[in-house]
């Protein structure tokens, strides 16, 4: 198998804009549907959603009521899409957009942990432990990557969560006009501002590279996926700053060469990215459901299923050249829905697994191939698509950006969303609103349970009285 880097990029194909927007919207849809089963076991997911059918338009599939899901309004995404949006907005916030600024993204992320996405009145919900621990450090903004590395070292170099992977697809989209190694470089630089573990870095490089290739039309079959996996691995492995982030003076024990090599074990990587079934990944295993390789492996398997044109018992809708035999957007929408639903019903860290898988499969089927009863019901979906379309134009994915006039950032792309910094009173009011929503939903469930039990008793009495 060749691992030679690709030649300088050729012009983008006409399908690139549709695939780029399909990536961003597909990820948000996967994230939103994934919330239905996030943190559940497979058995609990099947019990909660026995039909394994989800709709974001009327009749909307209700979320299982519990303390986790009660925080989120219906039909909305989670922190996964918020963080992807932060990078997209960072790119769009300057008159000369550039996708290369990890420090600007880190500053956005720090602000998000306090204020959320103010343009959408979205509080910061669902922050992962690694991101919360790293970003809350007092000196985080002075050197985000260094603070992230120190945090990882202090915790025994064992933390390889999926929090950096869930936002990386945007880098692949914005980097589509350029070279593969540039996407890897940005993916690595942005990834390590929260997740220093080499496994997280290689996962980000894989997904960034795959999205770039899918948008460009250079990743068209499973063999292309396999080659990109090997190229990405080799690129990270050859760069000590990512593959071997050992402690410096005063940062803890320095690893031996053997210990450092185990941080990026090829057999462990292969076991996940070449998995044949979701069962092999044990996605709902409680102690390891947030492991970055589980998420990566699930997303790659989902892409493989899409390329085969099948999910579960589906017939193969693609010929030997990966051309759609039916050339039918509804077929692609059916494919996307079935693949993401099958993954979501595996439960575990379902929102992140489906967000990354949704990005890859969304890039494969394009925006036109996403299910309408999901896309049309997504809260803030039009705003998200508008930002994605704007980024696609500015990045030159939809043609020559220079021919479209001077780019002027809109106020809602600014770090404060054009609304100024939140006061402490506003922050407290936002947090209080979340708790109030949770209490209301809890009372509604309790009342419904009382009614259900009451009707059950009344039915028994009526039956007994004849």
TrEMBL record:
The keyword Hydrolase applies. Mg(2+) binds at residues 78-80, 349, 351-352. InterPro entries: ADP-ribosylglycohydrolase, Ribosyl_crysJ1, Ribosyl_crysJ1_sf. Keywords: Hydrolase, Magnesium, Metal-binding. Binds 2 magnesium ions per subunit. Its cofactor is Mg(2+). One of its GO terms (molecular function) is metal ion binding. Pfam families: ADP_ribosyl_GH. The keyword Hydrolase applies. This is ADP-ribosylglycohydrolase.
